[in-house]
Amino acid sequence: MPEAARTGAAKAGEAPRSVDLALQGGGSHGAFTWGVLDALLEDGRIVPDGVSGTSAGAMNAVVLAHGLARARHDGLKGQDVHEAGRKALKRFWENVGLLGNFSTGLPLPAAQAVASWFSQWISPAQANPLGVNPLRRLLLDQVDFELLDTPQAMKVFVCATNVRTGVGEVFSGKRLTVDAVMASACLPTMFKPVEIEGELYWDGGYSGNPALYPLIYNTRSNDVVLVQINPVAVPFKADANAQDIMERVNEITFNAPLLAEFRAIEFVARLLDEGRLDPGRYKKMLLHRVDGGAALHGYGSASKMRADIVFLHQLFEIGRRMGQRWIKTHFRNLGVRGTAIDSP
């Protein structure tokens, strides 16, 4: 392994820290998350215990978990396992980029306007009756979902929204299949709902982006590192145009479930600190955040459908820088205090 990869624990002798990962969705902006994960894995001191993901975050979650599990299954240890995870993510996103390189058409703003108009008059069942999604084949080519339900794999949780009930459902263990991941990433204006066990599912971002509660009850770590793609607070003008309005509405919609869980977790943590809850029954979670919202907001929501390799690598590099910055600033706080409010 190159010396450049032997960072963190290998150089500083620091004990590794177990963390849970929470990966938000956001189309091709998931390549930003790829960059963040690459920085965390390269550092060497951060060991993922569980991961929860939605939409593109779900794809990152299963690809990462499979890469690590396959390495352990093959007898690799330590940083070599992390290097395998980095390679798995790189392979997946570069294959996405190869697909994106074949996509040509209108400039992004025009494409978004046409897609918006198109979706008002033609349903996905009419436009794409066979439900073709090339990402499904990419996942099947790279991820052995049965391996994700073995002791070598970390806990993986994927959220999708039940169309009938409007409630988010988390898939894990034997129920975690390629269909569950595709359901988690199923935007209703682009794809037919995915049927699983007789129920129809849409994108998990409407109900949990990502869902945090599975990490509370099913993993050992108290630290959750959220990789956030959608901005929480952005400047907005009263005379904004229709496109800016819809973009902000989508950001608010896809952040709402996450913010609700944040408030609940912080409320429980405060009661535990005040001695008003039994620590034997309640788990105090320390929330951390690598925030890509501000860095990605300038690209606009239309760019979430852009997947050429050049653009994905741009997002990857932004994610790597933000991940490295977070490690430098907040690694010392793992196991000590949450930093989600003051994270860069």
* Weakly predicted, low-confidence segments: 1-11, 104-123
The class by helix and strand makeup works out as alpha/beta
**How can the largest sheet be summarized?**
8 strands, mixed
How many strand units? 8
Order of helices and strands: HEHEHHHHHEEHEEHEHEHH
- Overall average residue pLDDT: 86
- As a whole number of angstroms, the C-alpha radius of gyration is 20 Å
What fraction strand?
5-15%
Number of helices: 12
Q: What distance lies between the first and last C-alpha atoms, to the nearest angstrom?
A: 30 Å
Shape: globular
Helix content: 40-55%
Write up what this structure looks like:
The chain is of the alpha/beta class. The chain has helices at 9-12, 30-43, 56-73, 79-101, 108-121, 124-127, 134-142, 178-184, 213-218, 242-273, 293-297, 309-330, and strands at 17-23, 46-53, 155-162, 168-171, 194-196, 199-203, 223-228, 286-291. Strands 1, 2, 3, 4, 5, 6, 7 and 8 form an 8-stranded mixed sheet that branches. Helix 2 (30-43) packs across helix 12 (309-330), helix 3 (56-73) packs across helix 4 and helix 4 (79-101) runs antiparallel to helix 12. The longest helix has 32 residues, at 242-273. The chain is globular, with a radius of gyration of 20 Å. The model is unreliable at 1-11 and 104-123 (pLDDT under 50).
